[in-house]
Amino acid sequence: MIKVGVVGGTGYTGVELLRLLARHPDVQLHAITSRGDAGMAVSEMFPSLRGRVDLRFVAPADAELDRCDVVFFATPNGIAMQQARELVDKGVRVIDLAADFRIRDVAEWQKWYGMTHAAPELVAEAVYGLPERNREQIRSARVLANPGCYPTAVQLGFLPLIEAGVADLSHLIADAKSGVSGAGRKAEVHTLFAESADSFKAYGVPGHRHLPEIRQGLVGMAGKAVGLTFVPHLTPMIRGIHATLYVRLTQDVDVQDLFESRYRAEPFVDVMPAGSHPETRSVRASNMCRIAVHRPQGGDVVVVLSVIDNLVKGAAGQAVQNMNIMFGLDEALGLDIVPVSP
Amino acid sequence: MIKVGVVGGTGYTGVELLRLLARHPDVQLHAITSRGDAGMAVSEMFPSLRGRVDLRFVAPADAELDRCDVVFFATPNGIAMQQARELVDKGVRVIDLAADFRIRDVAEWQKWYGMTHAAPELVAEAVYGLPERNREQIRSARVLANPGCYPTAVQLGFLPLIEAGVADLSHLIADAKSGVSGAGRKAEVHTLFAESADSFKAYGVPGHRHLPEIRQGLVGMAGKAVGLTFVPHLTPMIRGIHATLYVRLTQDVDVQDLFESRYRAEPFVDVMPAGSHPETRSVRASNMCRIAVHRPQGGDVVVVLSVIDNLVKGAAGQAVQNMNIMFGLDEALGLDIVPVSP
Amino acid sequence: MIKVGVVGGTGYTGVELLRLLARHPDVQLHAITSRGDAGMAVSEMFPSLRGRVDLRFVAPADAELDRCDVVFFATPNGIAMQQARELVDKGVRVIDLAADFRIRDVAEWQKWYGMTHAAPELVAEAVYGLPERNREQIRSARVLANPGCYPTAVQLGFLPLIEAGVADLSHLIADAKSGVSGAGRKAEVHTLFAESADSFKAYGVPGHRHLPEIRQGLVGMAGKAVGLTFVPHLTPMIRGIHATLYVRLTQDVDVQDLFESRYRAEPFVDVMPAGSHPETRSVRASNMCRIAVHRPQGGDVVVVLSVIDNLVKGAAGQAVQNMNIMFGLDEALGLDIVPVSP
Amino acid sequence: MIKVGVVGGTGYTGVELLRLLARHPDVQLHAITSRGDAGMAVSEMFPSLRGRVDLRFVAPADAELDRCDVVFFATPNGIAMQQARELVDKGVRVIDLAADFRIRDVAEWQKWYGMTHAAPELVAEAVYGLPERNREQIRSARVLANPGCYPTAVQLGFLPLIEAGVADLSHLIADAKSGVSGAGRKAEVHTLFAESADSFKAYGVPGHRHLPEIRQGLVGMAGKAVGLTFVPHLTPMIRGIHATLYVRLTQDVDVQDLFESRYRAEPFVDVMPAGSHPETRSVRASNMCRIAVHRPQGGDVVVVLSVIDNLVKGAAGQAVQNMNIMFGLDEALGLDIVPVSP
């Protein structure tokens, strides 16, 4: 059994981690921390976990996290970077669901996240946990940077085209739409039901923190600079991301075959039949990413449709997938969830 | 392995059955029938099942259902009653998720359902599959009438009070609210998104088919006549039923203790702490029924709040629970789903 | 032209008031105050008002409210009671959309609202602004207590039965469902989209602040004590209240005729044909209350269905209706909005 | 008074037309036709119109449409083209909200709409009713082709850039998101609440009927061929379209100034301040189009965000705007609706 600690269990990625870990056959939940709600039963805050998670939140200081095999940080940005060093030094592996270790260029990170990085040396060794790209490095990672939700959907959609060298890299467009849970469980006016239901909007068009993360990933695939326009939108649903990607081909290629070949062995990427339009609900509550590829009217523009559940493949599920890889388990262990639809 | 057939797999109770059966460790899916879509891959109609259910719909005539151990009817009312006789005679057990075998008074059934019953003799032997009331009879049932969604939530909420003889039976009120999936997957104007989103309404106030079913159940608990007012409402959510019940006490009693005692051993009924207000999402995608009991201002009116997922405990999940009981399995096998929240 | 001030224009009742006042032909908007957002253009906070309201929020101290003919308080509870005295003494009429002047029993008010009342003498003279009950007193009111949202829907539904003396007053039940905007524009976790979408729950069952308000109104109609159970619920829609009322008749009566007679002359109460089920969307954005009356199976239980838009007839629209009455205008002036459906 | 007929009043554009016409000061509603529901009171089908529209649906043959000044066709494609000739010959002006007269190339129209055109000679004389482009021609139009919903939002967003000659025309991208009412009031499975709520998907990527309409409009602005990729999406809200447009600049230009200058005099196009992100709810129920323009990171890619209410500026409202122009009225008459938000 893997002894697991969760730091910051009161947000959506936290409760989703608990949903998944509660039924993972090889996991023993050791502690779930919360600064503000220590002492409260986890299932009092999240009644969906009644009878499934019997722990109480503990204060970070009382959590004895160094007795864990792995600690997940489901915290705001800037927390994991302060605590990871000590854990790693004691042999505890760290999986950060926030952004602290995602950007290799520390100066760039500091610009976008508006704080000084507390552990730049760990950034250097951290592994970016997109298994479809970095599975081998993940196995031995001590610090795992779990990808952002948009970056997961967008990178998996661009990946086959860029790796194959058939994309016009100067003008990549990612138009992405997210459910509201992506904004987290903080009390804010703009994510109130009466503000975000029955309405649709873009946000962060001048620049969103996931832009440098996606760009870094695409540059890594391409081996050279890319021109990327990324526009996120808020859509009135709880879970789900739908990324619509626009790529100009530099050469003629069978894009359906390209995607199917690239992802044939991937347990959590499903290339749908030609002509498909994946719905976000087709992956709801599961770790799947479903992708369809189109060339409208047979032209040179490829439209890629990529959907994930932002809380699963875009956060907690991918974190568990990474944990499975890190501990040599079947990569899909505990993740055999059939999507909930309708 | 239990060999299972599903008749009518293209509606919401059908696809939900498939979601549950696909991961049931002791079930082998033998055939899924559809009159209109025979030949189509199940996962083409329901992409959420891609990689999980590899069967194609077959025409009823080709399904060889008599080779099954059990056949679920996820069909409109009036189908199971035509086919059950033959299956039962061949030793195949039948679980009907529609209403054909729910009402013991055949004349009453015919009045509410507007057709002549094709197998009244099977009504007599059919067992009403509310495990919390009829677990023993369910074990040996050959024909199992799976309860309706409203009747499940409402009966479980009234049950402890009526069994204990502390309810004023002359004036029971059940004000129930259902998500739109309860109306099924038929194309109808009133359940279009643009008709039912962002709005709320009652329906069927003059008389709803679940009224006689609930009344029969309550009379069974009480051993005498009851006066019941039942008002269903449509609420703009996909899944979930919330029943709010109003009962006048005929004697002073600790209602919290009464409910906890009655349901202590039940795997799928969760009596919440005093003062709770269960949300439908706390049971989403799971087979749980959560109940809270109140006596506002300490008066003689008891308010019971009872929530289920209409497609699970209100349909497919309860059907699997009944199957487990009928075949001597652990009652919760294949139903260990952690509710999906948010 | 009536010179109008609005205190507290940044909540939902505030912005809804502005929507209505912006197109009221006899109104001149003089000032809109906001403690926290003084200086900001109203249309920057509420882009829906771009080109329609050109004012900026001003600090309360700078608003020169004593130059207004009428001041609306769209503030939290406890604000109007502190400022009304001074305005009234200067001849400015006050319409409070909060609860400060709704409950005539000051001790009762203090118990439910948890504060000491700052102007009990104004409570005594304040008029409760339900025009269908108190139209005459409203004409000359100096302080107008605009009814709560639930109390409006519930009282209008019970009114004809109680006034006619045909209701069993010992056991009145009001099961009410509200859209999320009823909770206001405060940043709180439980009204986030991801918390309240696709889910349904009751709240405040042990006691909700609208209970004493409703009870006071019903007692006023009945001339004697009433036994009332009131259960509010949160439903995943933006606007709308649906009240389902259960009343036992003490004598046989044609309830359809009773309701039609009582409301024939009311401009904002629409008694629907027998057998109807009003939807909340049928009054969306308008000041209408639509009501249907049923006697299921011809029994002695009457079920009343009453729907309003909580922000209009349940708040800002009724406030404008009251203003019209107070200033001798056509009661419907500025309120001729056709409901928005779908 | 303008005597108005509406052919096909039972769909969403029909009922929305009625909402607008019912309060238009210069309109007299003469007849509303329905083949299937003749004899039914309009307000029985649409209770939101109770007390506002007192007509009954009449059979087309009984409508005496030739006595009208103008007839709106709110019908499926292929109806107006069969009836327009006769009306026009009798001096009745025709406004078609469907697609019959939108595409000037009849062969192209027949390819996309799958039928033979019944009145190609009327296509030649029909005026495309986008007032911001064609106001002068609209004044004297006998047959008015009211633009599609997507084409309105998309064309208004591209227009200033293309007219100014600063757009790379070879690779224009329009990623558009629509509320579900855009699919109409037909009973279909894919627009059921339980199918389209809490989910998001693209559709029609290989080719959507609005593609040739948009392309024709852009070609008209550019005076030459354009390369356009158009991807529509279904988003779980009732009303609203959000178009996100991607254009590469061919020369440096102040895009904010360009848009503001172009639309300064337009009553129904609102260019928002630089940095804005318009929400669809900011135009809900109104005839406004709100637009924001961005150049992320100051690059050469312009992102245009354009929102409308698909049923108003995208259908019925624009039709009334066109009627006002055709009859020499104030263009905004009857359209002074303040958007409903929240």
UniProtKB/TrEMBL annotation, chains A, B, C, D:
EC number: 1.2.1.38
GO CC aspect terms: cytoplasm
The keyword Cytoplasm appears for this protein: yes
Pathway terms, separated by semicolons: Amino-acid biosynthesis; L-arginine biosynthesis; N(2)-acetyl-L-ornithine from L-glutamate: step 3/4
Keyword set, alphabetical order: Amino-acid biosynthesis, Arginine biosynthesis, Cytoplasm, NADP, Oxidoreductase
SUPFAM superfamilies with a match to the protein in the record: Glyceraldehyde-3-phosphate dehydrogenase-like, C-terminal domain, NAD(P)-binding Rossmann-fold domains
Catalytic activity of the protein: N-acetyl-L-glutamate 5-semialdehyde + phosphate + NADP(+) = N-acetyl-L-glutamyl 5-phosphate + NADPH + H(+)
Gene Ontology terms: biological process: L-arginine biosynthetic process
GO molecular function: N-acetyl-gamma-glutamyl-phosphate reductase activity; NAD binding; NADP+ binding
Family membership: Belongs to the NAGSA dehydrogenase family. Type 1 subfamily.
Protein name (record): N-acetyl-gamma-glutamyl-phosphate reductase
Protein source organism: Aromatoleum tolulyticum
Record gene name: argC
